[in-house]
Amino acid sequence: MHNKSLPWLNSIVLTLANIGLALLASVIVLSLTGVDIGAAISQIYHGAFGTQEGRGYTLYYATNFIFSGLGVALAWHAGLFNIGGEGQATLGGLGVAIICIQLDGLSLWLLIPASMLFCALFGAIWAFIPAWLNAYRSSNIVITTIMLNLIASSFLVYLLAGALKAPGQMAAVSESLSAASALPSMQSVMAFLGFNIVSTPLNISFLWALVCSAGLYYYLWYTKLGYETRVVGHSDESAHYAGIRSKRIVIITMMISGALIGFIGLNEVQGNSLQLNVDFVAGFGFAGIAVALMGRNNPLGIVIASILFGALYQGGSELAFNEESIGNNVIFLIQGLVVLFCGALQWMLKPTINYWLRPMEVTKEDKLPVR
Amino acid sequence: MENTFSWILLLDASLRLATPLMFAALAGFVSERAGVMDIGLEGKMLLGAFAAATIASVTGSAWQGVFAAIIVTGCFSLLHAFACITHKGDHVVSGLAINLLAAAVTALLAQRIFVQGGMTPILSDEQRLPTIEFPNIITHDDSIVSQLYWHLLSGHNVLVYLAFIVVFLAIYLMKYSTWGIVVLAAGDNPTALKRAGFSVSKIRYMAVIAGGCICGLSGAFLSIGHGAGFVENMTVGKGFIALAALIFGRWHPVGVMLSCLFFGFLEALAIRLQESRFSDVDSVIPIQLLEITPYVLTLCVLAGVIGKSAAPATLGKPMR
């Protein structure tokens, strides 16, 4: 009579059902606001995948989503909720801009490692503060990271109004990095390999994002530190009995998480705009939460979810371009509903799914030997 | 004389800027004392502002706008309660979802309904909440008492006074009513409450919805009290400052009120400095320093540098 459940199947079905529910809710809300759904979907699809340029932009945005999704997911495995992505990405971009301005003229082979290092370092330092406060002063990491987001954004405004402000500019932007210090675009990489693609902001940080995803997978499931991270996330008490120094793990995890999210700055500043402006992070840090929830905190899932979000972002901005009244809000709406259904309400459908997917009950009559 | 007057005007502006913070922080107070964390204050504030401005502009009645704001934010906190209490979802994730949804839904609807780039039309004085002039018991003259009376105390929007009434109501209810004690218990010791025969879920539901309704007032003040219409993302982080005030005020109504007033004062000072920057002296304090003060102070409280933070014991943990 015992009811053996199928956890892996159930969890996949549950995830898909939650995503489906979120998308269904998006469709309902959008049609209630008077959007022509059929036209909007085909427009988003065409905008994101229809042209080579669209695909380039999709992957370019996906790069940001991968970095922030990975950062959020890593912290999640240690039981930490890092919603400080906005601040960590801001600091990452700041690090990139500072190093690129300071080391202007250096060969790219040296500049890229230096800017990556500084990007990671700045992001990690910004994540170190809440991590330390959490580990040693048991401060709530959600609140501290929110506060640090707001502090980072004011700090950036302060720097862009003063120390980093481009001379002779009215707008609050930094001076431009020289074109020679830009990350190689995918166009030039592909041209080197003999393929010809159109020019988009897509650059080698996309490849770095994929490397980071694979690296995170290896780190979490094949290294001692990753194992300890997951133990701490599962139960602080067990970690204590196993002799794991959980405070150390909290700090290391958060710093890696901050560094990963900081790489958004690399993609945005050195990869595309070559300039710091006030809102270059533009919600990518927060979006990592939706991405991580959709990807079930698994690096592969995150890459898939990021491409989906990148497509929405790119297709959605096409939508905003052609039909002015819709705007980027469609993306925020879908993000919000994904966070709601895949996050806050993720267990809502569990009883239903467990009911429908339960194994057939074996009764006594069935067990009779077949003659 | 000139100097005193400018100080009075600064305090007057502080009161005005502290009002939305007070409503939102009290909303967070009610919900968090019952054990449900609420980082969706920012979003609910925005929803309240949008609902109030829309209904006021459509019906022409400011009070119907206030009512609509309360209903809308109440509904969204019902969603929060449904996720956090019934389905034991993560409180932070749910609050975050509300913030994202609020930003998107208000902007989309505002664009769809009014087709003015995400704004409601500018509201006339009849569509806004009235200000209250105090009775004429003190003559208008240059004495400090008269100036305090006429410029600081009298002539505010009706919601400014309501904010203080809500604070005193919160103090009274928390200290002297069963309802208040039950809510405190739901956050500090739900097991004991359960053993005493109360339904923890029901109490938390009620507290979260009550908090949502109060938060609606904060939005209404922004769009039809202090302001004259809804603008996309008009809360610009006020919900998070309210959250900071809640922590800095240590989850106690008096503390919350005082920290809201203090943060309101900082904001007023920042605006004053920004105005004076172009006219006379270059200000010594960067405006951003004033902006981040609430957040830095909150970090210090959380770090235990300034006293001990006194969060409700089971805040953010679902009832087992």
Which structural class should the secondary elements of chain A be placed in? mainly alpha
Strand content of chain A: under 5%
Q: Provide the CATH architecture of chain B.
A: Orthogonal Bundle
N/C terminus separation of chain B: 62 Å
Range of helix content of chain A:
over 70%
By DSSP, the count of extended strands of chain B is: 2
The succession of helices and strands of chain B, N to C, reads HHHHEHEHHHHHHH
Largest interface, counted by CB within 8 Å of the partner chain's CB: A-B, 48 and 50 residues
Question: How would you briefly describe this protein structure?
Answer:
By secondary structure, chain A is mainly alpha-helical. Chain A has helices at 7-32, 37-50, 52-77, 85-102, 108-137, 141-161, 186-192, 205-222, 224-234, 236-241, 246-273, 284-294, 299-322, 329-344, 350-356, 364-367.
SSE arrangement:
The complex is a heterodimer of chains A (371) and B (320).
Chain A: H1 7-32, H2 37-50, H3 52-77, H4 85-102, H5 108-137, H6 141-161, H7 186-192, H8 205-222, H9 224-234, H10 236-241, H11 246-273, H12 284-294, H13 299-322, H14 329-344, H15 350-356, H16 364-367
Chain B: H1 2-33, H2 41-59, H3 62-86, H4 91-114, E1 131-132, H5 144-153, E2 156-157, H6 158-176, H7 178-188, H8 190-195, H9 200-226, H10 238-248, H11 253-279, H12 287-302
Antiparallel strand pairs in B: 1-2
Helix pairs in contact in B: 1-5, 1-6, 1-9, 1-10, 1-11, 2-3, 2-4, 2-9, 2-10, 3-4, 3-9, 6-7, 7-9, 10-11, 10-12, 11-12
